[in-house]
Amino acid sequence: MTLGFYPGCSLKGSSREYAESVLAVANAFDIQIREITDWNCCGATAAHNMNRELSFSLPARILSLAEKQGLQEIVVPCAACYSRLTVTKHELAKDPVLKNAVTEANGLDYSGAVEVLNIIQMLNKYVTPNLESHVVRQFDHKVACYYGCYLIRPHEILKFDREEDPQSMDELMLKAGATPIDWAFKTECCGAGLSVSRTASVGRLSGKIIGDAKDRGAEVMIVACPMCHSNLDMRRNSINEYLGEKVDIPVLYITQALGLAIGLERKVLGLQRHFVNVTV
Amino acid sequence: MSSDPHILAISGLGDEVLEHTEVKVSHCYQCGKCSAGCPLSEEMDYPPSVIMRMLQTGNPELEEKVLRSFSIWVCLTCEMCFARCPMSIDIPKMMDFLREKSIKEKKANKKAKEIIAFHKSFLDSIRYTGRLYEIGLFVSYKIRTLRILDDMDLAPKMIMRGKLNIIPELIKDRTGVASIFRKTVKKNKN
Questions:
Q1: Which residues of chain B are within 8 Å of residue A154 when distances are taken between CB atoms?
Q2: How confident is the model at residue B190 (pLDDT cuts 50, 70, 90)?
């Protein structure tokens, strides 16, 4: 079966290394992937902050297109897009008035049949069963798996992993030879959408995350969200300013870390694109 | 109208919240877990539990303060409050409603100018190209806020690393996306 792919805007721009590493890992495990044709932005934080109907219509268009293009299942590596798409499915299923308004705005059929997978669900379904036999170089580092908000919350709707102290990324990294650490900031917010408008707030929030990981001996941060990545990586100057010291722990997407473990080339995984040098 | 916060139906804004979001502000018993878990509460004028209390009173003056608060805009929708609420009150959903109403009634807090400018610039980009065009977003945000020099060091570094598209990604069905905006946003033009 072909797995549909919704990259979302970040993966085509500021987080293109996430897309590169997702596709490289998928390729290594012979997963057939097809990008949804003519997809649009999910609307992200801006849409739901400003207009409820818009915030459901934009993700609904994506789901309708996937349906129309014969995709039964799509992977959405961006945690924020994943959350928006899944919440939209949930709201449209329980609110027929909203569903009518949304399909009217979109002019597309919508049945809600498309299965939406986050990156960990995709990996666990198609990669984990064969992961250990593919590992050629143990990812022998202490890692802090950082889940952030949208992979897990709203938990009542996403129903993925545990709401406090989630484990799915830790378990995957363990299989790749890493030593996941226990730490306190797994699901704290990095500052997400305030990155541009309130950079100092992001420095404080992301600073606490990096600070705790460092204090507990982490050598690498592992993430599954482009917003988490860009705040922890590209905003490292603000973070170091908050912490009052220079912390150079690199931030890897989980697909980059797994890619290294199965012997993929660094360039294929886009490691050269990071602001904080990837020294592992 | 009643001053008793323990009755189910609450007058005014609390009622509106209930009608539009199914969130019952009367269910809050002020344990404060939302405010304790909120990563932004120290930057807020009223932390989430206080917003809940203000809505419970049904006092129009306090309701007005809620709509004019900075809190509703600095809220990141990280959903931690909802996750930790022992009464499962969907505070983020309520915040979305309050933000939309605050904008519609031109009551948005002045301190939130940059945050709102960012949202508007973000949506403009989607409206015209179907996807987020990051350079367009930055330029439009700078024009809106006149914060011209912010992040000037970031763009060249991003371009060097291939993280910034010079040319926007244009989807084919731009009229379809534009029409979604027309049909949804036109209802509450601000």
A1: 79, 82-83, 90, 92
A2: very low
Average pLDDT across chain A, whole number = 97
Taking the C-alpha atoms of residue B126 and residue B133, their distance in angstroms, rounded to an integer, is: 8
* Cis before A154? omega within 30: yes
The length of chain B, given as a count of residues: 190
Confidence of residue B148 (pLDDT cuts 50, 70, 90): confident
Residues A124, A101: Cα–Cα separation, whole Å: 36
Please report whether residue A85 resides in a domain: yes
Domain that holds residue A249: 138-263
* Ramachandran region, residue A32 (left: φ > 0; alpha: ψ -120 to 50; beta: rest): beta
Strand extents, DSSP E, chain A: 3-5, 33-35, 73-75, 115-117, 142-145, 179-180, 220-223, 251-253
For the entire predicted model, the pTM comes to 0.95
Number of domains in chain A: 2
CB A21 within 8 A of CB A269: yes
> Using one digit for the tens of pLDDT, what is the confidence trace for B92-123?
999 999 999 999 999 999 999 999 999 999 99
Q: Say if residues A63 and A1 touch (Cβ distance below 8 Å).
A: no
On whether both A44 and A109 belong to a single domain, the answer is yes
CA–CA separation, A66 vs A42, rounded Å? 13
- Inter-chain touch B119–A16, beta carbons under 8 Å: no
ipTM rounded to 2 decimals: 0.94
Token pair 């084919």 in the structure block, residue: B172
Q: Which residue in the set B83, B103, B171 is minimally distant from A50, CB to CB?
A: B103
Count of residues in chain A: 280
CA dist A207 and A186 (Å) reads 13
- What is the Cα–Cα distance from B76 to B73, expressed in whole angstroms? 8
Nearest-angstrom CA–CA distance, A71 and A87? 19
Q: Which residue of chain B comes nearest to A201, CA vs CA?
A: B40
Where residue A244 sits, what CATH number does that domain have?
Answer: 3.40.50.11810
Q: CB–CB of A14 and B92 under 8 A?
A: no
